[in-house]
């Protein structure tokens, strides 16, 4: 990375951050004038926090731009060139590792344990989600190499979610649906997105058709995992009654 | 990953102290989250990637920037953005009708999605990958509109007393149906868009806002627990992006 490249990255990052955060700050000020009428120190606190968040967003985007995106792409290109068995292994490991370290997944595990009245230990949920995501990443990487349309995987997946709506407990349905976003934090999302695009470029496919879709598969995994656990719980008719 | 709870931040002890306490409490969580990924990359670098040393060092420097950025981002969300959601959630019920609350929640969903890190990255990557997809700003706008519409719809469901299941069934059926009729190139974009939304910024703000307004919306306190707000909000971009791809 040259100095001019770094300067250009800084400029584009700063402008996109300003564009991203300004609407939030403006909307808050409009609400403040219209109905909030918060004391000055509360307004200052909110604006300080917003500026801090904007600075953090800028550093994050710059770091992702010089590290996760180019290197994720390299890793994707290297993985796509491996024999199929190793592609699956790499996908399983990457999926498991990134999900295991995701704090939101642990929060989800606690929620499920609570909703089940303690009969579904949080540890099961953690494992179920991590295994689900690991399989998703492996399937997603194999899909890229074999030009499988994303709808072949997503339509049956979401049809399964749709079907299990009628069988799961109310609390499980709500938790499972909300769980879609928990497996992939900003780290995994940016890294795996670049990785998939890199793998697709080696496979020679259309980047929009083959390179995208990995993150979508990962979002499906926790939904199905929690739904499945809910069905298992119901099947075993454990008496931890679920309130809604 | 989620920002720390502002109540545990020591924010009552002065602004600077509060911010420092938040930074300190966020750091371990960020490091725990980033370490396994960096570790996996190091293993891959040594085994299959073999990138030039300069590029690998650039990755490590960038990863440090990412960690610092996340710490600041979470501290900023905990210090200012999350309280914003709480204040609005606390004040709105006194001033407005349920329908005003829906509008405000939708607007908050829109503006927080505009600043959601994952959304910005996805939109930039889509634009860089191919000219055939939507442009960066157009995609960000569509995603934010989807979150806004479905957030408002999720709250309207509570006002009107519609069950979660029928609403989810309609959203899922729309996702499945549209993915079969929309142009194939828009399907992966749409579903990726759905999974990058309701992230570190949008999710806590929408939850804080809805907790404050739940009493007014449902007519009784606390009945919004686990009501699928985030799941519905992230179905929004899928439906909107597929719809636009199909109709244009």
How would you explain this protein's 3D organization?
The complex is a heterodimer of chains A (244) and B (248). By secondary structure, chain A is an all-alpha fold. Chain A has 2 domains: 71 residues, no CATH class; 163 residues, no CATH class. Helix content of chain A is 82%, strand content 0%. The longest helix of chain A is centred in the N-terminal third of the chain and has 41 residues. The relative contact order of chain A is 0.13. The C terminus of chain A is likely disordered. With 248 residues, chain B is mainly alpha-helical. Chain B has 2 domains: 84 residues, no CATH class; 153 residues, no CATH class. Chain B contains 9 helices and no strands. In chain B, helix 5 crosses helix 9. The radius of gyration of chain B is 20 Å and the shape is flat. About 3% of the residues of chain B have low confidence. Chains A and B meet through helix 1, helix 2, helix 3, helix 4 and helix 6 of A and helix 1, helix 2, helix 3, helix 4 and helix 6 of B.
Principal-axis shape of chain B: flat
SSE order of chain B:
HHHHHHHHH
Helix/strand order of chain A, N-terminal first:
HHHHHHHHHH
Share of residues in strands of chain B: under 5%
**N-to-C terminal Cα separation of chain A, in Å?**
54 Å
**Ranges of chain A with pLDDT <50 over ≥5 residues?**
238-244
Query: How much of the residues of chain A is beta strand, in percent?
Result: under 5%
Largest interface: A-B, 110 and 109 residues
Secondary-structure map:
The complex is a heterodimer of chains A (244) and B (248).
Chain A: H1 3-36, H2 40-80, H3 84-100, H4 103-115, H5 122-146, H6 150-164, H7 170-178, H8 186-203, H9 207-211, H10 214-235
Helix pairs in contact in A: 1-2, 2-8, 3-5, 4-5, 5-8, 5-10, 6-10, 7-10
Chain B: H1 15-49, H2 53-95, H3 98-114, H4 117-129, H5 136-160, H6 164-181, H7 186-196, H8 202-218, H9 229-247
Helix pairs in contact in B: 1-2, 2-8, 3-5, 3-8, 4-5, 4-7, 5-8, 5-9, 6-9, 7-9
């Amino acid at each position: 990375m040259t100095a001019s490249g770094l300067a250009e990255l800084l400029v584009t990052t700063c402008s996109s951050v300003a564009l991203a955060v300004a609407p939030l700050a403006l909307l808050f000020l409009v609400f403040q004038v219209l109905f909030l009428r918060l004391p000055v120190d509360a307004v200052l606190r909110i604006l300080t926090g917003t500026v801090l968040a904007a600075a953090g967003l800028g550093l994050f985007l710059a770091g992702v731009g010089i590290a996760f995106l180019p290197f994720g792409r390299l890793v994707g290109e290297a993985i796509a060139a491996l024999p199929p068995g190793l592609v699956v292994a790499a996908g399983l490991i990457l999926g498991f590792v990134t999900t295991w370290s995701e704090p939101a997944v642990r929060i989800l595990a606690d929620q499920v344990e609570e909703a089940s009245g303690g009969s579904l230990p949080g540890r099961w949920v953690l494992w179920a989600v991590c295994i689900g995501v690991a399989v998703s990443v492996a399937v997603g990487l194999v899909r890229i190499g074999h030009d499988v349309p994303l709808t072949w995987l997503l339509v049956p997946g979401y049809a399964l979610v749709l079907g299990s709506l009628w069988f799961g407990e109310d609390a499980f349905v709500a938790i499972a649906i909300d769980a879609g976003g928990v497996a992939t934090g900003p780290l995994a999302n940016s890294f795996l997105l670049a990785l998939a695009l890199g793998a697709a470029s080696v496979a020679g496919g259309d980047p929009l058709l083959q390179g995208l879709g990995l993150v979508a598969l990962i979002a499906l995994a926790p939904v199905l995992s929690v739904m499945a656990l809910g069905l298992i719980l119901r099947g075993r008719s454990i008496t931890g009654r679920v309130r809604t | 990953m989620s920002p720390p709870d502002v109540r545990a931040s020591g924010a009552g002890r002065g602004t600077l102290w509060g911010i420092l306490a938040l930074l300190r409490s966020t750091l371990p969580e960020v490091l725990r989250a980033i370490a396994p990924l960096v570790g996996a990359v190091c293993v891959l670098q040594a085994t299959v990637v073999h990138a030039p040393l300069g590029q690998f060092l650039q990755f490590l420097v960038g990863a440090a920037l990412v960690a610092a950025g996340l710490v600041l981002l979470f501290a900023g969300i905990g210090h200012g953005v999350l309280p914003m959601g709480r204040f609005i959630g606390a004040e709105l019920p006194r001033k407005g009708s349920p329908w005003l609350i829906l509008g405000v929640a939708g607007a908050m969903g829109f503006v927080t999605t505009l600043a959601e890190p994952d959304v910005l990255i996805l939109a930039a990557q889509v634009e860089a990958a191919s000219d055939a997809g939507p442009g960066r700003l157009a995609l960000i706008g569509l995603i934010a509109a989807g979150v806004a519409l479905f957030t408002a719809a999720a709250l309207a469901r509570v006002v009107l007393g519609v069950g979660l299941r029928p609403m989810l069934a309609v959203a899922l059926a729309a996702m499945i149906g549209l993915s079969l009729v929309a142009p194939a190139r828009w399907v992966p974009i749409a579903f990726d868009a759905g999974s990058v939304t309701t992230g570190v910024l949008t999710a806590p703000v929408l939850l804080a806002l809805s907790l404050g307004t739940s009493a007014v919306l449902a007519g009784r306190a606390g009945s919004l627990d686990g009501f699928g707000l985030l799941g519905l909000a992230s179905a929004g971009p899928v439906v909107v992006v597929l719809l636009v791809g199909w109709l244009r």
